[in-house]
């Protein structure tokens, strides 16, 4: 039953990542000059064009929409990697996925709580959706990562046979 909860959360990660990809696909189209305007809700201070053409949006050497789009796509790949027992059989994947998601959620939160309201003084609806998806993905990775960390912390039995993917270095008997 717990395994199915992990699988449901992984499916949620895929959904959140795809929503983030759709949001950042629109931003990427704008930042790459394929469309001229990003429509905004009719609310004050919403100006997605201004936010996505700012210097901050290009500070990493490429438009941030393209980088974020790639990040969401990588989430999908990491989520699909490994079987239903991945937290115990390949714990490094669960830990890596959660670490990556945590870093992205922190960077995205900086945009939401500092960059847009304080620096740009404008909001981007596409970016808000993106931030929420990053936070959601991170939250969904935590239970499986905790289980994986527990696997690493558990003392290994000295009488257990080596894992199939490890190299056994003892000499063979003559």
Describe this structure in words.
By secondary structure, the protein is mainly alpha-helical. 66% of the residues lie in helices and 0% in strands. It has six helices and no strands. It has helices spanning 2-31, 48-52, 64-80, 86-89, 91-120, 125-153. α1 (2-31) runs antiparallel to α3 (64-80) and α1 (2-31) packs antiparallel against α6 (125-153). The longest helix has 30 residues, at 2-31. The radius of gyration is 21 Å and the shape is elongated. The protein starts with a helix and ends in a 21-residue tail after the last helix.
List the helices and strands and how they pair.
Elements: H1 2-31, H2 48-52, H3 64-80, H4 86-89, H5 91-120, H6 125-153
Helix pairs in contact: 1-3, 1-6, 3-5, 5-6
Estimate the global geometry from the Cα principal axes: elongated
Strand content: under 5%
Radius of gyration: 21 Å
Low-confidence stretches: 157-169
In short, what is this structure?
By secondary structure, the chain is mainly alpha-helical. The chain is built from six helices and no strands.
């Amino acid at each position: 039953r717990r395994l199915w909860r992990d699988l449901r959360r992984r499916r949620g990660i895929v959904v959140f990542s795809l929503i983030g990809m759709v949001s950042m696909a629109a931003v990427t189209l704008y930042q790459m000059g394929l469309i001229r305007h990003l429509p905004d809700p009719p609310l004050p201070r919403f100006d997605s064009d201004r936010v996505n053409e700012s210097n901050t949006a290009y500070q990493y050497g490429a438009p941030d929409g393209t980088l974020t789009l790639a990040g969401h796509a990588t989430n999908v790949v990491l989520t699909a990697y490994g079987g239903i027992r991945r937290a115990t059989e390949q714990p490094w994947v669960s830990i890596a996925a959660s670490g990556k998601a945590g870093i992205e959620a922190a960077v995205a939160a900086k945009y939401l709580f500092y960059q847009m309201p304080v620096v740009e003084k404008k909001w981007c609806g596409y970016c808000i959706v993106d931030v929420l998806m990053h936070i959601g993905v991170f939250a969904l990775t935590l239970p499986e990562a905790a289980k994986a960390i527990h696997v690493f912390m558990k003392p290994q039995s000295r009488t257990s046979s080596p894992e199939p993917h490890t190299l056994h270095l003892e000499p063979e008997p003559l």
